[in-house]
Amino acid sequence: MIFDTDIFIWVQRGNEKAADLIESDDQRCLSIQSYMELLQNAKNKTQHKYIKGFIKDFNFTTLPFTENIGHRAAIYLEEYTLASGIRAGDAIIAATAVENNLTLVSSNYKHFKAIKDLDFKKFKP
Q1: How do residues 75-103 score in pLDDT, each as one tens digit?
Q2: Strands of 104-106's sheet in order across
Q3: Where are the strands (E) in 51-119, listed by range?
């Protein structure tokens, strides 16, 4: 499973359901886009260290940005931005999930609902 950025934020806020969801999955992945979003939103070096430690301690695989992911994300933007308002970061995360044949879990269904070839699991905090 690939986890959207919001799942990590739920964990940081102490949401036990989000933590249980992560612990229950054997194949934990995140997009390099989510990793960068987490680091970007950290307020200090202590939070950077926490994020990096969490990802390491729970054996997450950070999936890289590839040419195929970039191409697919651009297609998603062309197809869905005007109709659904999908943003570049979400297009990259969705493309990463599809290109790696993984289910994307997120509480932000509205960000991803237009993407037909995405295997999506909605998280309800």
Answers
A1: 999 999 988 889 999 999 999 999 999 99
A2: 61-63, 29-31, 2-3, 104-106, 120-122
A3: 61-63, 104-106
Distance CA 74, CA 111 (A): 15
Indicate the DSSP class of residue 119: -
pLDDT tens-digit readout, 14-62: 999 999 999 999 999 999 999 999 999 999 999 999 999 999 999 999 9
Give me the domains of the chain, ranges plus CATH numbers.
Answer: 2-122 (3.40.50.1010)
Dihedral sign for Cα atoms in the order 20, 16, 110, 35: negative
pLDDT given at position 85: 86
- Name the nearest CA neighbour of 98 among 123, 78, 72, 60: 72
CB 93, CB 8: distance < 8 Å:
no
In terms of Cβ atoms closer than 10 Å to its own Cβ (0-12, 13-18, 19+), residue 86 is buried
